[in-house]
Design brief:
globular; Alpha-Beta Plaits; seven-stranded mixed beta sheet; 3 domains; Rossmann fold; alpha/beta; 356 residues; GMP Synthetase, Chain A, domain 3
Length: 356
């Protein structure tokens, strides 16, 4: 049943600004739905504003009217997926609902356990109800595999697509999750490494993908040179687009090819800093990373997986041994940390090592 309430009637072009001001003054009624007309918007208020409040509004928005309008109550979004599905799934299955999801642009990606396969469409719809910016929900249909680190997906709700635009720390990334690897769970790691890069550094990103490390580094630093390498031509195509969109053409240089061959042919001894985000088998490329590092030394950011009962200390030892075999040496570790859990008893880790 619509409820009559005092409101501000204002043009559509001024509606957002007016709503913010009304919220700051404690006037906006969040329980009622804003109503739109062809060229005007009615913003519901919890009460008639005082003369002083009208004056404050008028100082920022000169053209509006205090009016009375009928408003429907705002539909409350469920706070959790479990809350949305509690009357639609058998109670014993609610505990199996996925607790984590990756949101890349307007695409949500989840892992649906086998016992919930029959309910995956409804789960996808519940995610879209909970996250209004999501337009596509994909379920993982296999593990990350192959040279390009890709996985298969099944559409369970929304639009049939795998490409989107993702924003991260002021950068815009065109991503296609079916064609090039991308993980939003590494966003803070992208930012951390970018914050460490100094002016005039040369960076070699050995497994650059669509450019989350390379582009952010170049965006943050005007006088750097980043060589962004990847073996996946689709990833390089997206990387080139992201370089243009973020206006870092004169700082990021994409190179298609196997990291070892690219270093050997073009990048020997150029790097102040090397990024090795290939946790499945980065150890195989330690020689290439050391070869790319300047003779005077540099920093290597090495990513890998650790499985219990193994330890991070053991990973540091193995990395040091791999570096020793190249004729270089780990002077010291600057940083060592597990980043995220990737499976039961498995974590992704990062080592920042000073190589001499």
């Amino acid at each position: 049943m619509p409820k009559e309430s005092p409101c501000i009637k204002v043009s559509k072009t001024l509606a957002e600004k007016t709503l913010i001001l009304a919220g700051k003054l404690g006037l906006a009624d969040r329980e009622l739905e804003i109503q739109k007309e062809i060229d005007a918007v009615h913003i519901p208020l919890i009460r008639n504003p005082s003369e002083e409040e009208v004056a404050k509004l008028r100082a920022e928005v000169p053209d509006f009217k205090i009016d009375i309008h009928a408003f429907p109550e705002r539909k409350q979004r469920p706070k959790t997926i479990e809350e949305s599905l509690k009357n639609q799934l058998p109670p014993h299955l609610l505990a199996s609902l996925p607790r984590a999801l990756d949101v890349i642009g307007d695409i949500a990606i989840i892992e649906v356990p086998p016992e919930l396969k029959a309910y995956e469409k409804r789960i996808g719809e519940a995610i879209m109800e909970r996250h209004r910016n999501v337009r596509t929900v994909l379920a993982k249909a296999g593990a990350v595999s192959g040279t390009y680190r890709l996985r298969e997906f099944t559409l369970i709700a929304g639009e049939q697509k795998t490409s989107t635009v993702h924003k991260e720390f002021g950068c815009t990334f065109h991503v296609d999750v079916a064609k090039a690897y991308f993980s939003p769970r590494l966003s803070h790691e992208h930012e951390r490494v970018a914050s460490l890069v100094q002016q005039n550094e040369t960076v070699v990103d050995l497994f650059a993908g669509v450019g989350p490390f390379s582009v952010l580094i170049a965006k943050r630093n005007k006088d750097v040179k980043v060589y962004a390498v990847d073996i996946n031509s689709k990833a390089i195509d997206l990387l080139k687009r992201n370089i243009r969109v973020n206006r870092v053409e004169n700082r990021v240089f994409p190179i298609l090819g196997d990291a070892r061959q690219v270093v050997e042919q073009k990048l020997v001894g150029v790097a102040d800093r090397v990024i090795m985000n290939l946790p499945e088998n980065a150890t195989e490329f330690v020689e290439a990373a050391c070869e790319a590092t300047r003779p005077a030394g540099g920093i290597v950011h090495f990513y890998g997986f650790v499985h219990l009962p193994d330890t991070l200390e053991n990973m540091k030892l193995r990395f040091s041994e791999a570096v020793d075999k190249t004729g270089r040496k780990v002077e010291r570790f600057l940083f060592a940390k597990t980043i995220r859990e990737t499976a039961p008893y498995e974590w992704q880790f990062v080592l920042d090592a000073k190589i001499v």
